[in-house]
């Protein structure tokens, strides 16, 4: 199976965090419950990025901010032909190339059918 991304829910106040924080941004608590971050999301905004690092085989990519049903907003790569703000997305996790020698695991959003 592929990688998963997680949100970290404060065990005291319930605030969700992503990426991981060690101290709750809302109440200062230091214990978190790990919950999988996956499924449907909604596109809030996006940008088209040119000048990609070496290793990308495309002239440009879309990056977007998507909101999960639990209200958490994350950034990720969009694998969508024609992004429209408010469109439904399905989140997947994959390798996102950050630079020539650095691959990292991140969200890749696809169009929900
Ligand atoms: Zn808290």
TrEMBL record:
Pfam families per record: zf-ChsH2 (PF12172)
ChsH2 rubredoxin-like zinc ribbon domain sequence ranges: 7-33
InterPro entries: ChsH2_Znr (IPR022002), NA-bd_OB-fold (IPR012340), NOB1_Zf-like_sf (IPR036283), Thioester_dehydratase-like (IPR052513)
Gene3D superfamilies: Nin one binding (NOB1), Zn-ribbon-like
PANTHER family found in the cross-reference section: BLR3430 PROTEIN
Protein name, UniProt field: Zinc ribbon domain-containing protein
Native source species: Clostridium aromativorans
């Amino acid at each position: 199976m592929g990688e998963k991304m997680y949100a970290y829910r404060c065990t005291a106040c319930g605030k969700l965090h992503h990426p991981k924080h060690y101290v709750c941004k809302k109440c200062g608590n230091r214990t978190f419950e790990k919950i999988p971050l996956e499924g449907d999301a909604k596109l809030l905004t996006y940008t088209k990025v040119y000048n990609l690092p070496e290793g990308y085989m495309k002239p440009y990519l879309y990056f977007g901010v998507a909101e999960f049903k639990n209200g958490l907003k994350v950034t990720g790569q969009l694998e969508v032909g024609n992004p429209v703000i408010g469109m439904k997305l399905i989140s997947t996790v994959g390798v996102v190339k950050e630079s020539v020698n650095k691959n990292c695991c991140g969200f890749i959003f696809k169009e929900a059918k």
